[in-house]
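User: Fold this, then the next.

Assistant: Folding the first:
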Amino acid sequence: MCQSRDPIPFVKMCASGNDFIVINNMNQDIHIDPLVVKKWCDRKRGIGADGVLVLEPSSHASFKMRIINADGSEAEMCGNGARCISLYAYLKGIAASVMRFETLAGIINAEVIEGQIRIQLTQPTNIQLNMKIDDCPTLLHYINTGVPHAVLLVDAVETTDVVTIGRKLRYSSAFQPAGTNVNFVEIVDGSHIVGSTGFQPVCRQDACTTFIKVRTYERGVEDETLACGTGSSASACICTLLGMVSSPVRVITKGGEVLTIYIEQDGDNITRLFLEGEARVVFEGRISP
């Protein structure tokens, strides 16, 4: 709902299959109603999106990012959303190519580099490895990369029932009251990926970058999405802590795009975490409040 009742300008953006409606509220003249957000995000009756990103003024950064999920709830952080809003702020002249912005999870540093957007996520917290809970027959792992994530290692991610298992764990009593996002991870051979998709793995210091496939059931969207930036980062962190991969980790998303995760460690402590990938503008328009 807009105070003036005029149509609201928006930009539809996409990053690795996650799509968002981006709204500039730097003048603070737009009131965003969660019920209206649900209508806007409806893929049959609205614009269609995983959520709405709102730019608002900040007293200690270039801007503040609000993240409103498709169900109307507000999220602390969204990795792919952060990459979209970074590109938006740069293209609209709100911020320089190197920027800082505020989220409910903390301050995010971002950089736009020749079509790639790299963000530094907040330092991961609440790491728990090898958890056993009643709602899951196998061990799982937990980490907060701005929002909470459960991580399960599977043999074949493409045949995993992500929605059924993900929904059950998302609402598990072990993760209440906030709930959790749920990620399913398969570690794959980079040489196989080259043959099947055609891209070359990046090699650092004669050690080939590790690839993992990740599928995510997202809290707030209440379904599987084509990608999740904080989920990809969470999965890469867990696999690194378990000694299964090393940084940089390339994540193959459900949508087929690839994200690169850079992890800096001090022993078992993750000190800095970066997420890098493409983002793009899909179209611009106006919508009734």
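Now the next one, as you asked:
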Amino acid sequence: MSELPPIILYTYQFSPYAKRIAWYLQLRGIPYKACEQPPVMPRPDVASLGIQYRRIPICSIGRDVYLDTRLILAKLETLPTAQPKLGAAPESEHAALERLLSSFTITGGPFVWAVSLLPPQMPVFKDEVWIKDRTGFFPGAGKITAPSPEARAEAVANMRGFVGMLETTIFADGREWILNTQDPSLADIEAVWPLHWLSRIPGAFSKDQLSEKQFPRVFAWVERFDKAVSAAAKKLDAAGISGEEATKTIVAAPYFDEAGRVLQTELVVQTLGLKQGDRVIVFPSDYGMTHKDAGSLVSIDEKEVVFETKTKLVGSPTIRVHAPRLGFRIVREDQASRL
């Protein structure tokens, strides 16, 4: 087994998305360093990489930097370690369930419902800096405010439907984990994170509507998962690292991924007339879209786009940034005025 490249996770303490990546690394026993970021912009440590992207987490593997938890998890699955992979076998029915859970929890509702279940008395709803930052995160949505009673009621109803589905189908046979495995798998990470996040926020769950009283199997699973990742974390070296040291570590490392190529059969490539080396702008298509990244195109296929950026270190050494195709837009830099 070859030596693993350095892995750095850009995170902040309460990010439920960053937890997805930390859990994976911990459960699989993959050493990494955590570069703590402020929960609001600006983030100079990320900017020093030549990256404007504002979502957390960001994860580097060697000299490659990956955006979006779905892509990050897919890349971590390819790491050669003594510990087995957490994902289901490709093209299996378990892999289908794993991907459906990932898609549903991120884009299908549970995370949005979870946000609406945040207690109105939380300090962040009185923090003008946080409110301004998150209002810019969702352009056109208006000023961020505490969830209304009506929004919370709808969120409770929707979340009960999700939790009830897990209770009466997947966990109905008494299994401990989503895929009936001996230990937590990637499918558990994909399903548990919104519920785990809320379960650690006092007042988020209503005891008479959404608790272990109504859904004992699901809430037992959440607690079981928490114990598993807590035990795994104690065995793992996950030291902190400064932003400056993180940037230096990344540019000094070898590339993890092959450079790839620009797939000429891709419709976006054909439509924009893209070729390797072209200047492109890449940004999320749903939220956080006001922060756009520009770089030189390295490769693009049906799954991801890779571009090169210049860091802010002396001599402007470059790194490769990877973004998934799903949920991201790509435009030519010379056509940026159309945005």
